[in-house]
Amino acid sequence: MTLLKVKDFSLSINDEIILHNINMEIKAGKVLAIVGESGSGKSMMSSAIINLLPQGAKLKGKILLNNDNLLDKSEREMCLHRMNDLGMIFQEPMTALNPLETIGTQIMEAIKLTNPKIRYKDLLKKAELILERVEMDKNRFPLNTYPHKLSGGQRQRVVIAIALSQNPKLLIADEPTTALDVTTQAKIMKLLMKLVKDYGIGIILVSHDLAVVADLADHIVIMRKGKVVEQGDTKTFFKSMKHSYSKQLFDAAKHKLYEKNITVGSEVLLEVLNLTKEYNLANKKPLKAVNNVSFTLNRGENLGLVGESGCGKSTLARCILGLEKFSKGKIHIAGRPFYGQKELRRCINVVFQDPFGSFNPRHTVERLVAEPFYVLKKPLTTFEKRVKVLRMLKLVGLGDGDLKKYPHEFSGGQRQRIAIARALITEPDIILLDESTSALDVIIRTQILDLLRDLTKKLGISYLFISHDLTTVKNITNRVLVMKDGVIVEEGLTAEIYKNPKHHYTKSLIEASPDITRAIKSKEENNNENTL
Amino acid sequence: MKIINLVIILLSSWPCIAWPVTLNVGLQLEPPNLDPTSGAAAAIDDVVYGNIFEGLVRINEDGDVQPGLSLSWDIGDDGKSYIFYLAKGVLFHNGDPFTATDVKFSFSRARSDSSTNAKKYIFKPIVDINVIDPHTVMITLDQARPDFLFNIGLGDAVIVNKDSADRNSFNPVGTGPFKFIKWVRGDRVELERYKKYWGPSVFLEGAHFKFITDPLSAYTAMKAGDIDAFPNYPVPENLFLFENDPAYEVVIGLTAGETILATNNRNPPFDNVLVRKAIAYAIDRSELIDGAMFGNAVPIGSHFAPNHPDYIDLTGLFPHNLDQARQLLLSAGYPNGFSASLKLPPPIYARRTGELIASQLGRVGINIKIENMEWSQWIDQVLINKNYDLSIVSHVEPMDINIYANHNYYFGYDNDEFKQIILDIETNTDALNSSRLYKLAQKKIAEDAVNGYLFQLGKYGVWKTGLKGMWSNYPIRSNDLRGVYLEGDKQ
Amino acid sequence: MISFLLKKITSLIITLLVSTGVIFILIEVVPGDPVAFMMGLSGSTDAADALRLELGLNVGPWDRYFDWVSGMVNGNFGISYTYRVPVVELIRERALVSVPLTIYALLLSTVIAIPAGLISATRRGSLVDTSFMGFAQLGVAIPNFWFAILLVLFFSTTLKLFSASGFPGWDAGFFICLKALTLPAISLALPQAAILSRVMRSSVLDVMNEDYIRTARAKGLSKKQALFRHGLRNAMIPVLTILGLQFSFLLAGGIIIESVFSLPGLGRLVFQSIIQRDLIVVKSIVTLLVFSVVTITFIVDLLYAAVDPRLREGNS
Amino acid sequence: MKHFSISFIVGGGLSVLFLMGALLSFFWTPYDVELLNIKGKFASPGLEHLMGTDHFGRDILSMVMVGTRNAIAVSLIAVGIGATIGVPLGLWAAATCMNGSRLIDELLMRGNDLIFAFPSLLLAILITAVFGPSIINAIIAIGIFNIPVFARISRGAALSIWPKEYISAARVAGKGVSRISYEHILPNILNLLIVQATIQFSIAIIAEASLSYVGLGSQPPNPSLGRMLNEAQTMIFFAPWLAYFPGGVIVALVLGFNLMGDGIRDLLDPKLRQKSITGKVSNDAS
User: Rounded CA gap, B415 and B418, in Å?
Assistant: First the structure.
């Protein structure tokens, strides 16, 4: 039976149309996935249902919860609905909890709201029970734990616990796992699905990645620029989808493997020998962020480095870039020991993750891209610089007109192109790609990856691609290192590792990482089971 | 016999007193301590003189020497030896009886090497003090000193008690009509009538001296009725507001403060008498008095108090005349004037007069740069190191024309003729002669235009109507409250 | 927590030591001789020398510094040159006026500012908000001494509601003293209240944009409930800082107000002492003020820790 | 571009007005401020003297004009001193804090605390006790207390910029700490500094007024608003204009600059701007 029905719903904020004529429907105990890129309005949609919108929001149409229209409700009535019927989980678990209150009080507050007459003893019991429900061991995480003690995943569990504690009929999860590691992501998703089954809750799952939701959702809604592009039952959707955009998303989501016809030279460009980086923390024993790591990167080679957040991959990168002093070991670039000296710097450059953070907002593209010229021994004239910059911009697919523009005038994808231009401008032998595509929407991501692949090939540049995301690494590297807790646990040709990973961690990573083809397969399988 | 008169006056006025009251007296400066024999702060005498402490003799409102603890005295023909006949049955506030030994103690203490008495020079001439009997004491001087009697009437020469002397600075014990109760530092000193006072009993229950630094609060406190009397109201400009208010009485008297444009006679161009005369001509006293003192001051032509019998009016000596001034400057070799600094101490009269003087001298081409400074800076730079051109200050010491005889004083006036005059004054005993000599002295420094002589600082008494017996003049700094009473109903 | 405390305390002590040095040097270079000041225009020189001896001004600066510091350590601040009483006693008397005044003013400003800031934050953009913030702007702009004068004119001379000046002393009774301190407190409090309310407003606004408020609202809390249960304590953190600063500022900043109302407070004492070159008093008071500032910042830090668990573990 | 807020317009208007008046006073004032005319003292405001005359018969309007000029000059220079010393210190502290030795950072910040801990007015008084009262010393006294303010704020802002990836990029390009501070950090914290400067400026105006009120600061015959107020006190009962005009001017001046400061903040504050771009103003549910 229909739990929530969105009918001809439109939303505008300060007369700027955000959502236009949305129709969707979710049944109790089912999962509805809203998929779209940033700016598609998917988050606004979810906020609209629970009516937590910015000031100046105007809503049209109907949002029917059990056939009564939420849009007619007064704020007080809405509060009651949020208490009893609706729960919400947000994207950013790190800030979603009040830092000054224990998780216990925050959960119990929620419980007390739904049944105010509950006795304190029962309240405690219920809170602990719910924490167990979200698989938080009450011995490791007693109720009086403060949020800052918890990891992102654990906090997200607490947020879910809060939502559950009011046993809602509908749970809205806005990118609940985007900020988390793949393994955690998988766990959280599993948890959510379990809840659907146990409680018969309806879930609206908002995500930017088709692959994430493909095997979970019963119904998929594709959104773009505030409109619903296409929607349908997951079983049939992927076969029957017509809209080009849906197809794009689909292609972006299923990653083809990297063609292996590259020639790896014998010349060693980068050599890392027993590198160790220690941080000594106040009144704790020093933490080995990078622990005795060794590897080489040959000319023409495309090396991947995979690991979850906190595994030390970024620290390793910063050491290689000469941004951090390392405690032990050696780094050789072009056969010479590297400790941040200028003349070797020109051999290596970097593309960072955040397309917003990686440019000085007050500099023009020309100045930004030209910055690396600073390493050259004999400085170039402004003219020479401009010529080179223009050529490079053309290579990354930007026009001469962009020369005098400022970063904020570009989209995320374009910025990443500029970043690449900056990295390549001094024609280094190595570029280091630190999560360079993680912040991008799936479609853009594939484009950027293609660009990278072509360019590096064309210019004969080798790169070290650092990422938390196996699938990305998979289709852009020919060799891969898997890192965990500062140690490289497995190393080998990409294809090999994906076929039969040796280390259990690598296994878990591969299983956890969402893969749409696999997802669809599994879906069909359990359909068949149902039909049999 | 003066005493008798006083008593009669008091008795006659007795019936019209409603009832005894505790008087709130406003003072601008808080005394640093309450021992008049220590520092030079006039603020100490403001509170204690005549009220808590008494001397052998007492200076009264008109500056005359009156019997004090010594009811009468004989002076030897040589003018060197004094015999004082002390009052009997006098008790210090701590209960000790007052005897001749206390006199000996007090004076010896003031003369001793360890003494920090600012006016040690008073006791310099004493060669011997001997106690003839408990109520008779004889003091011998090195030579005749006509000003000795007056001097031992000053606060610095009051009689203190052996046991309490060292604590007088914060717990003063004297023989006066009021005894010290407490001192709320920064706010007030409380006095209470001393029941066992030897003299005629006073009318006031007690007195609270409240210290009000801020001139605005002086006005508001008065108007709000927090204060009954302001013996020396700090700002002349709003006096008229009280004059127009029937609830208040304003009595404008004189202080011993000759306000002068102190001039550094050492340095050029001021070592040149022509220049000094030029300045004298350039000064427009009426404008000063009108502008800076709002009309409430008396012009002076020399360093002498106008209410003193020996005073002669020399204000006409250099009448305000710009052309004369320019002429003199020309002949002195400064055709287009010169520049000089004018260092001003904090008091309002100095600051205001300073600004006017600057503009007045500016008219004859003397370009003045004003430098305001606090007292300690002023004392340091002007008084001690004589590092100044011009300054404005009021010399509040009574009968202090003799400072001109000291060529090391900050004026730097070194004139043998004048020194001789002062010497004569100090040694001579004949009244007539001394009067002549004083007039001579006044003339001399006026003609040499040692300093610019501006005006005698007024004493602006403001108090509630019906309050009688407050001093209207300040021959010496004192707010002797023994004769004060409130007429009519106490509001 | 322990390490946090230790760190704070050490920095506290160091600051104090350095400050004593700075103060001493500063005072040493101040020209003008207390003795000369006390002797006045016609003081005799040998008396001055005697006094200098009595005040122990005849020894070298180093000795004086060490005497002073070591004295202060065991609570002996020396004897005032001019008043001839122990400096400690002087300071005690004056502190009995200044500290209550400061607290009074602070209370006033908090009582006014916190609600005002809260209301204008919750009613952002409304008439109330704009008018409150308008007042705040005005409050910041008015020099407090000027405001004080206007207050005196109106309440003392015109309405005769309050006595214009002076302080009766606590033995005269609590409420009488409170009355005497009211006008000064108001004139001190106004600008502080203005500043505080602005801070309060902005910090509340910031907090209301936090994710955890959204979480709270998703629980079904109304906007106000969410703010009061989850927002306020977070919002108070910056406000605490300002309060700490203001306390120390008011403690020292009373000078002008104290003289306008001729209150026997620390400010006026030190001002007087500077004029009279009672340098031993100046030194001690300035040191004390510095000390109070440092300790108050220290206390504020402790309060942070009390409010914020992250600081309690010292991992921040 | 975002259109100007009302506060900016009002504040800017006031500030410009006063600046003009102050500038004008360099070339022309209705009367000579040093011209004393006892005969014409306490003239109430009228056509002859728009703001009346004082106890020396000086024209208040002229004095207010010059006084405003002095106040502005003192505040500008004082804030300038604070900024030119404080900002580099702050940047340096941040840089050292981010790269290796925290010691210098610690030292600098402790020094800041020390200055902060000093009662400002007292120090000013002491300074003038040492060097004698003068406009220069007023500037120094106020300037000193602006140093830690700017040091702190620029340090804080710089610390938030240092982790940015474009800084890493610059360092990958081999740029040194000082160069980065100058090329990348400073331009990006400028807005903040400008806003702070306007606030400090208005604070300085009040400070200058207070100093000259207690007789420190610019010396006669050179007029100053604070001293005018002080002199006016005792005459306020029969010549209130003596106090109202200078006082009003101070208030209006400070008000103007504060409002302008707020306006500038609204215009420049990166936070607000970002919001206006992304339109992400989270749950202000009505």
Answer: 6
Non-local (6+) Cβ contacts of B385 within 8 A are none
- Residues spanned by the domain of D106: 80-278
ipTM of this complex prediction, to 2 decimal places: 0.82
Note down the domain range covering A417. 361-427
* Backbone angles phi and psi of A333, in degrees to 5: -115, 130
Rounded to an integer, what is the distance from CA A408 to the centroid of its chain? Answer: 22
b/e map of A370-393 (b: 16 or more CB within 10 Å)? bbbbbbbeeeeeeeebbebbbebb
- Chain B: give the shortest CA distance to residue D210, in Å: 15
Task: Say if residue B269 is preceded by a cis peptide, omega within 30 of 0.
Answer: yes
For C:27-46, CB contacts with B below 8 A are: 31-34, 36-44, 46
Say whether residue D258 is in contact with chain C using an 8 A CB cutoff: yes
CATH number, domain of D103, equals: 1.10.3720.10
Q: What is the CATH number of the domain that holds C201?
A: 1.10.3720.10
| Cα distance between residue B321 and residue A312, in whole Å | 94
Average pLDDT over residues B401-427: 89
Q: Do B377 and D221 touch (CB under 8 A)?
A: no
Angstrom distance (rounded) from CA D11 to CA C311: 40
Q: Is the distance from CB of A40 to CB of A206 less than 8 angstroms?
A: no
Closest Cα to residue D155, out of D193, D212, D200?
A: D193
How far separated are the first and last CA of chain D, in Å rounded? 27
Q: How many domains does one find in chain D?
A: 1
* Residue C168 tokens, joined: 């009766």
Question: How do the domains of chain B map onto residue ranges?
Answer: 54-167, 257-456
Judge whether D28 lies within some domain. no
Cβ neighbours of C157 in D, within 8 Å: 237
pTM (two decimals): 0.84
- pLDDT tens-digit map of A428-439: 989 999 888 888
CATH topology assigned to domain B257-456 = Dipeptide-binding Protein; domain 3 (3.10.105)
Question: Number of B:C CB contacts under 8 A?
Answer: 169
Tens-digit pLDDT profile for residues B192-203: 999 999 988 888
User: Does residue D184 lie in a domain region?
Assistant: yes
Q: Which residues contact C169 (CB under 8 A, 6 or more apart)?
A: B184, B187, C177
> Does residue A220 sit within a domain?
no
Bridge pairing between strands A170-174 and A202-207: parallel
To test the contact with chain B by mutation, choose from C55, C84, C155 the residue with the greatest count of B C-beta atoms within 10 A, namely C84
Q: Which of the residues D15, D109, D114 would you substitute to probe the C interface, choosing the one with the greatest number of C C-beta atoms within 10 Å?
A: D114
Residues A116, A149, single domain; the answer is yes
User: Closest to A100 (Cβ–Cβ): which among C221, C223, C233?
Assistant: C233
Same domain, A128 and A21: yes
| CB contact (8 A) between residue D221 and residue B291 | no
Contact D202 C286 (CB under 8 A): no
Mean pLDDT of C227-254: 84
C297 to chain B, closest Cα gap in Å: 30
Q: Give the tens place of pLDDT for each residue, B23-64.
A: 999 998 888 888 888 876 778 889 999 999 999 999 988 888
Q: Report CB contact under 8 Å: A75, C222.
A: yes
How far is Cα D56 from Cα D74, in angstroms, rounded to an integer?
A: 25
In chain C, the number of structural domains is 1
Confidence bin at C170 (pLDDT 50/70/90): confident
Contact D221 B358 (CB under 8 A): yes
- Structural element, H or E, at residue B174: none
Task: Name the band, by pLDDT with cuts 50, 70 and 90, for residue D51.
Answer: confident
Rg (CA), chain A: 25
Choose among A76, A148, A166: nearest Cβ to C219.
A166
Tell whether A333 and A434 lie within a shared domain. yes
Classified as helix, coil or strand, C72 is: helix
